[in-house]
Amino acid sequence: MEDRKLQGLFGHPGGKSRYVDFLTPILPPHRVFIEPFVGSGALFFAKPKAPVNVLNDADPQIAAVFKNFSCPTLKRCLSRRVSRKLVEDAIGRFKKGSTHACDVLIAKKFTHNSAGLNPSRLKIDASQGRPAAPTILRNCDSYVEKLLGARILSTDYSDVVRRYDAKDSLTFMDPPYWGVDNTKYAFCGMTRHGRDRGGRPCEVTPEAVCGLARRAKGKVLITYNDHPQVRKACAGLVVRRIHYVYTSSQRQGQPAQDVGGLVIANFRLPKRLTRRSARA
Hints:
- Helix content is 30%, strand content 15%.
- Strand 1, helix 2 (42-46) and strand 2 form a beta-alpha-beta unit.
- It is an alpha/beta fold.
- The protein has eleven helices and seven strands.
């Protein structure tokens, strides 16, 4: 089967769907691909498949989607027509910890982060009466082919990097944004003393992430928000800034935002990253 470029499985807070066109042209050759914060898998599904793939997410619900991805199961539930009841029921099960792929995919698609969702604010009018996930339905066999043989984990990101890092590996890290105050989901760095909004110790620091890149045997590519602490922690690595226009159904009636972020690597990058950057 042809190794096709695919979209990520769902919208994800901080997801890299808009970065993909910047990143795929600069990926160095590799035999092992490691993604410790896989999220929706935007880069994994867009790039050519490596001989060995290691996908990790600390969220067991997300890891379960990758591990249990099955076309017969997904086609039965994702082909159902969208209704408020369908979406609210999926979100309810998701919030109770469901690891069924359909519940997670539907909840993520319509909320980006359903854990704190107020069901009365759901906006599904544009999707009413349509299949819940037409892109996945059309390309289901290709998604299965991409995932075939991948090692799916749900553990600490640093353990994954240390275990699978090798001279012929490429590790792509898309850690939680640093210093972002967003009430919809807890990002590290929002409070003092290195704790997240729930009071749990925060271990995904820019210092830790970029420290792994410095010590790695293989190539490491990182995407981060442009924050002074990130730039300080990653000093000495190759840092480039990229720009893209951000729009969201959550911001209806508001103008698109010209935003951007950092691409950080322990290998050479072009001086300016564009959607057609040639590998340096």
